[in-house]
């Protein structure tokens, strides 16, 4: 078994309408409650970070899967949308949908469209974040090939 630790440090001072900070190996960002939830909206927030983690993990996994499948000159642009609900006095992320737009060489397009459902599943199964949130958050993929 291979194990790797990912470390971040967070700081916060004051009540709910203050601003904190999250610092990792690369990330150094202010955090607060989003303005849509009546917070200050300064910097990023845990919800955005969760969707960002899922999106960045999936796009990297998809790129690696396509590369291993023999596709060259890959370009992927992806929008990801997290859906959260407030029920039973709790907020919960219910789903994250990825909308990857995949561009490959013209001579690979038809072949990719045939193989895509299987490759999307492989990419999702290889994504650490997808594997970590399964059974709690539904992850959907709605691709476009160009």
From TrEMBL:
Coiled-coil ranges (or none): none
One matching Pfam family: OsmC
SUPFAM superfamilies in the cross-refs: OsmC-like (SSF82784)
Domain of life: Bacteria
NCBIfam families: perox_SACOL1771
Identification of the protein by name: OsmC family peroxiredoxin
